[in-house]
Amino acid sequence: MKKSRRTVAIDLNGRVAIVTGGSRGIGKACVEQLAAAGAEVVFSYRGHLEQAQEVVLRVKRNGGNAIAVKAEVSRPKDCEAITATALRHFGRIDILVNNAGIWEPPDGIAVERLSDAQWARTMRVNLDGTFHCTRAVVPAMKERRWGRIVNISSTAGQRGEELHADYAASKGGIISLTKSLATELGPYGILVNAVAPWWVYTDMSREVLDRYASEGPEGADAGDPYQGTAAPPRQGSRAGLPRLSQPTAGEISPLGRVATPEEVAGPVLFLCSDLATYITGEILNVNGGTILCG
């Protein structure tokens, strides 16, 4: 008699997840993958109502459940409202994915021209928003003595990013916050990790990546940023292109392309699952081998 093969699957049935910035890009992919694994999902969006509604409909068509909440994560009360929505509808919160963030302007700005307002806005959304949402959900997680918090950082937070000092600093702050909370919340059964992507083809980066794909090195597929080298050039290598230089080592992914949002959402899903019960305080690099750090 042939023995049945034991399979391993991620099952989040009975879990409730919050995803910030869930109407587009990485956040949308996280909403869809968490819902596909069985979680009830509440996600925030800032200003893209139609896209948020499309995400909800797509999740429901696939047999899942999702609720969209208009919110600005830079406002503590909005983060509390997201949490209250999850508790009101589902009675618990098990998972938080802090994804909402900004990266602007795409061409970057020299530090001597970086205004106080731009610096503060980036910090309010990227770093303060992560703090506000985490603070809002922790009491519910502590009550159940179980929780998973996954913060979306960036390779910019590990090695910096020229002309985007505000963004890099905010993402570096998320890494430090992740490590601090991992030790603080571990005794309550709450695991806190971060995912650090490199370039991902989303609405936020599409302008830069499309421009490089169409004007980049000879031999690259000009119409498809997933193919060829699809990475920003070093400073001075192409006149007129955004000065978004990468370190010499690992400037171009060994995989020859940038990531899709789904390729970042997969590791997030893993960290929320029972396959990652002894991982906390980790910065999981999802960068195609471009930044080789421990």
Could you describe the 3D structure shown?
The longest helix has 29 residues, at 116-144. This protein folds into 2 domains: 16-201 and 260-286, NAD(P)-binding Rossmann-like Domain (Rossmann fold); 206-257, no CATH class. Residues 217-250 have low confidence and may be disordered. It is built from 8 helices and 7 strands; from the N terminus they run E-H-E-H-E-H-E-H-E-H-H-E-H-H-E. The relative contact order is 0.14. It has 294 residues and is α/β, with parallel strands linked by helices. Strand 1, helix 1 (25-36) and strand 2 form a beta-alpha-beta unit. It is globular and about 65 Å long. Helix 1 crosses helix 8 and helix 3 runs parallel beside helix 4. Strands 3-2-1-4-5-6-7 form a 7-stranded parallel beta sheet, with helices on both faces.
Short description:
The protein is of the alpha/beta class and 294 residues long. It folds into two domains: 16-201 and 260-286, Rossmann fold; 206-257, no CATH class. The protein has helices at residues 25-36, 49-61, 76-90, 116-144, 156-159, 165-185, 206-215, 261-271; strands at residues 16-19, 40-45, 65-70, 95-98, 147-152, 190-197, 283-286.
What is the top-level CATH class of the largest domain? Alpha Beta
CATH superfamily of the largest domain: NAD(P)-binding Rossmann-like Domain
The CATH topology label of the largest domain is Rossmann fold
Q: Determine the structural class based on helices, strands and strand pairing.
A: alpha/beta
Helix content: 25-40%
Give the termini separation.
47 Å
Provide mean pLDDT, rounded. Answer: 87
**Annotation, overall tally of beta strands:** 7
Strand content: 5-15%
Tally of discrete structural domains: 2
* Oligomeric status: single chain
Total DSSP helices:
8
Q: Rg, please?
A: 19 Å
